[in-house]
C-alpha cells in the first residue's frame, strides 16, 4: 500500500501547511503565466473575438479552480487541474473551421462529453491508452513544431521585442529553469502594454480598453456541430488531452505514490469542460508539469498534507480568472507574431519531450516521423485538419511495419 493510501480520511486534522500553500500558489502562477498566451492564440486561431477570449479565460479559470479544489479535498490527494496546453496548440495549428468559433465550441462540448464517457466506459480510456506512444508523441511534436519556430521567426518581424523576450528566457533559464517562461511572459506583457499605448492617443484608448477589461464578462456561444469540427478538432483534441495530459498526469502522481481513481477525475473534468465550453472555455484535464510542484516533498514532507497545495492552486486559478480581461486585451492588441513567440517558448520543453518519445524506439521511428511530418505539414483534406491525418497515416505505416513477436522455443 502506498504512503498516500495510509493517511487518515480526515486530512483537515493534519493542519494547514504553509509550504503547501506556497507550492500551490507557485503552481497556479507558473501554470497560468507559462501558457496563457498559448490558450489565447489557440482560441483566436479558431475564430474567437476578444470578448469570447475573455469569456473563455474566465470560465476555464473557474473550471480549473473548482475541479482542483473539489477533487483534492474529496480524495485528500494533490490532484492538480490545468487547461490542455497541447490542445490549444492543436487549435493554433488547425485554424478556423467551417462554422467559425461556434463550430469550435461544439467540438469543445463533444470533447468534454468524450472525457466523461472515458470515465463511465473503461474500454474507451483503454483504447486511448493503446495508441502507440511513439505515434501520440509524433502527433504532439508535429502540432508543436510550428509554434516552437515562432520565437525565432519573430526576430525578423519584431526584432527588439523578440530578442528581449528570448534573452530573458535564456538568462533566467540558466539560473532557474522553472521561472524562465513566466519571466519571458512578464517581459512580453510589459512590451505589449507599452506597444499598445502608442503615445497619448493610443494610451488613452488602451487605458479605456484595460479599464473596461477590469470587469470581465461571460459570453454564451451557441454551439454548432459540424462534421469537419468533430473530426478535425474534437477527436484530435480528445486524443491529445488524454494522451498528453491525463495519462502523464496520472504518471506524475504515481511517481509520488498517489493513485487516485480515474473515474471521478474524468467525470469531473469532462463535465466541467462540456459545461464551460458554452462560454468559449477550452478543455480542462489533469496537470502534468505543475502537478509535480504539488505532489513532491517540496510541497510538504508529509504526504498527508500535500493535497492542500492542489487545493490552494485551485484558488489561485480562480483569482487569475478575474484578470482574464486585462490579459486578453493586452495580448490580443499586440503583434500576433509576438504572441506566437511567447507561446512557442512555453512549449519548447513539451516539444523536446514529445520528439524524444517519438524517435526513441527505432522500430517505431519511421511511423512516428510520418505522423509528426504529416501533422506539421498543415495538410487539410475534406475539411479535416492535419493532426487527424497524421495519426491515421502514421498508424497505417505502423501497421505496415509491425511484426508480431515470436517467442523462442524452449531448448
TrEMBL record:
Q: What GO cellular-component annotations does this UniProt entry give?
A: plasma membrane
Keywords from UniProt, A to Z, are: Membrane, Transmembrane, Transmembrane helix
Q: Could you state a single Gene Ontology molecular function term?
A: benzoate transmembrane transporter activity
Q: Which InterPro entries match?
A: Benzoate_Transporter
Q: Which Pfam families does the record cross-reference, listed alphabetically? A: BenE (PF03594)
Parts of the chain that traverse the membrane: 20-41, 53-73, 80-97, 103-122, 143-170, 176-194, 201-221, 233-253, 265-289, 309-331, 338-359, 379-402
The protein's superkingdom reads Bacteria
- What name goes with this protein? Benzoate transporter BenE
Tell me which species this is from: Azospirillum brasilense
Classification of source organism? Bacteria, Pseudomonadati, Pseudomonadota, Alphaproteobacteria, Rhodospirillales
